[in-house]
Please model this.
Amino acid sequence: MENREVARILRETAQLLEIDGAMIGRFRTYERAAQLLDSLPESVQELAGDRENLTALPGIGEGMADHIQEILTTGDYSLRSKMLQKYPQTILSLLELQSLGPKKVAFLWKTFQASTVEQVEQLARDGKLRDLPGFGEKSEENILKAVEVFKKSAGRFHIDVGEEEAERLISHISSFGKQIEIVTPSGSLRRGKETVGDLDLLVTLAPGTLTPDLIDSISAHILMYSGIDQTLARGENKVSFVLKNGLQVDVRILEKKSFGAALLYFTGSKEHNVALRGRANKMGYTLNEYSLAKLPDEEPVAGETEQEIYAKLGLDFIPPELRENTGEIDAAAEHRLPKLIDLKEIIGDLQMHTTASDGKNSIEEMALAAKQLGYQYIALTDHSKAVTVANGLDEKRTLEQIRKIRAADAKNLGIRILASSEVDVLKNGKLDFADDILAQLDIVLVSIHSYMNLERAEMTERILAAIENPYTQIVGHPTGRLVLRRDAYAYDMETVLDAARKYGVVMECNASPERLDLKDTYLRMAKERGVRIAISTDAHSTRGLSLMRYGVQMARRGWLEAGDVINTLPCDELLAGLRPKPGANSQLKPPDEFQLEIQSGQAPGVKAKSRKTK
Model:
């Protein structure tokens, strides 16, 4: 079993226990174990081969090791099965609604026997929740908004899930033998969309090997894949099936001469393809999934590669991420496509968390893992005190964390370690720390984690107040969206981006597949205004550092080039280019002097007054 599957079973057990009213310590044990398995770089299946490997993991005692081994052996967990005899499986889907937590879900079950999204939606529409304790008219509105998000996301999967499934399938298909030349994904996965609704794979055979018997043998081999739940179709050159997680997969077997045309066609988008076919027709061609052909006799003139098709149509090659019919065809015709940023151009990561707040690894572990990725610097951004659920740091702990970061940096590990914080933006727009604390940070990154349902005007003013604060340098996950779970909070993006440009504030493109925030359209708006971007992973473990590629893909979809992204710069240039904080030339104290201040209890900011924001 994959780590993700084991973690899901543990997490569902925790959710069912919380709905059932179990003691917090009991269900939190399962939650922590699920989080750990999600962040493990190693396979839990392989680790469990030696029980001592499991119990050596942080937070995994003898009892939890038994539970994990039971899941790996049976594919399920007895306590979860027992709880599902008491509660319908569908009750877990209610927890995907932004406005409902386990206590409210339990209340709805007890009061109305409501266990599906449809039932809860009807209760809200009928006005049956507004007078209940813990609810209200506003709660009904929020539930209906959350239901709409749920409906839009049904049947879709995060891009990393699609990528992982594609990698496993490609490995399986390729193992058929040397007749398989290329196996590549197309569709929304190749375009770098936030989510995928299905998975399209193209299989190209070595020249001269395409025969009905070979196609039949390859199809049979594909359908031997262990992750298949249901076979949908097995045709002349196509196999379709549904995986156990519900993701539909279509595999097409092609001749090499048609590979480029098929890749172009099945990559999409539909809008890009329609516009491209229209251009082809005007030029006397016809374009389909088999070839670009000259009219009227339809003699093929290109088809083996995408590049030759674009060239025949008088276009520069258009990267897959840009194929949304938003001006890329005209730009390609006029040779003004951007030189899109590449993952190898990223040399630092400016948001991540350690064990000081809600991360799984220490300062040095995060630094050394980033060094292995080739980074020159990182910024450690543990949460500030307002985010209690993430063990946010108060002033004293923040000063101590800065000291530890500076001490680790002084060890010359081969990577620069910057002291930062993910400082919460409070409801009134003020920051969670006073100026004297902010002044001690190398970089000040601010984010919103509460009061996300404010009205548009009020949220706009809140973000503007944070941007106007002279210490704010980067705004983290600027719209607060959680892909497939929560829509962005409402505010005037154009006004906010104009303010970011005015004050020299950087906007983040958060690379976590659950966020991917800012999204592509907003990134392009930022670029047009000259607002700089930081692509960060928001990693909560060393494993999470590898998520940078998803942020880069989103940046490419936003037409960004290396010059638009600050963490393509060397560290000193990056720091010099950030918005200067008040007194920036003297604010950072040497580690030894800073340590003496902490020990004496005189470190600035511990008793500082909050500054007045506009």
Observations:
- The chain has a mean pLDDT of 90.
- The longest strand covers residues 416-424.
- Residues 337 and 534 are 22 Å apart (CA to CA).
- The two ends are 53 Å apart (CA to CA).
